Amino acid sequence: DQAIQLQPNDALAYNNRGNARSALDDKQGAIADYDQAIQLQPNDALVYHNRGFARYALGDHHGAIADYDQAIQLQPNDALVYHNRGNARYNLGNKQGAIADYDQAIQLQPDDAIAYNNRGLARYDLGDHQGAIADYDQAIQLQPNDALVYHNRGFARYDLGDHQGAIADYDQAIQLQPNDALVYHNRGNARYNLGNKQGAIADYQQAANLYQKQGKESACQSALNQIKKLQSSTPPKNDPPNFWQRLFGG
User: Fold this and answer.
1) What gap in Å lies between CA 185 and CA 110, rounded to an integer?
2) Is 228 left (phi over 0), alpha (psi -120 to 50) or beta?
3) What is the DSSP letter of 43?
């Protein structure tokens, strides 16, 4: 504030204050500062990127893409901008566009494990389970301690009927992150499909216990219902991670 008061035409000061506001979750205030910075210095790719990120956080995916487009036009070799635009496109349902952006991000920064994971999600959603697994393989090679990617790969393997492979991935995810109820739930499904009803019951019960501790009553009841379905002839339905869980583990 003091810097802007002393130099009201300092675009960098507005950008920096915008970053500080964004870090404090004042995204609207951050956008106002980025607006001012862009008005003063309209050719700074970084500020467009920053404003796009704030817009994305507010759910304005179209606005975010417009800013990322501008940032890429000004600075076409920034892998992170392609990655973030891919996330925005994914959220708008443009999976092919997201994959194209993740392709470009990976080409510019081939050691970005998250980009491989996210491209795997998009490929999975388009029905390319093998392509998704290939991306998860690469993400794990780059970042072998990320429970989220093991979970995602396990989910893809499950859908291909590779229940043993899915269990191996869920085992690894649980070892790395033992309080993720959804992984226990999904491992229970895989165990059930292999005829291991007792193992499935144990997993569903553990999932229910964790859901209850987390205050997720509906999910807890779902896990308990799975136990009741074990006597039926219909296998339990696999419970997919939502986008944010798959993308950020949250």
Assistant:
1) 33
2) alpha
3) T
Number of CB atoms found within 10 A of residue 62's CB:
10
Quote the distance between the C-alpha of residue 58 and its chain's center: 16
CA distance 117 to 97: 16
Helix ranges (H only) for 1-145 are 2-6, 11-23, 27-40, 45-57, 61-74, 79-91, 95-108, 113-125, 129-142
What does residue 102 show for φ and ψ, rounded to 5 degrees? Answer: -65, -35
Asked if residues 139 and 113 have their Cβ atoms less than 8 Å apart, the reply is yes
CB 117 within 8 A of CB 136: yes
- Cβ atoms 180, 173 nearer than 8 A: yes
**pLDDT by residue (tens digit) across 59-68?**
999 999 999 9
Of the candidates 76, 85, 74, 152, the residue with the CA atom closest to the CA atom of residue 113: 152
The token duo for 165 is: 């492979």
Name the phi and psi angles at 89, rounded to 5: -65, -40
Interatomic CA distance for residues 141 and 86, integer angstroms: 22
Q: Is the pTM of this model over 0.90?
A: no
- Pick from 100, 77, 7, 17: nearest CA to 51: 17
pLDDT tens, residue by residue, 107-130:
999 999 999 999 999 999 999 999
Q: Write the CA distances from 145 to 22, 72, 102, 118, 214, integer angstroms.
A: 29, 32, 22, 16, 24
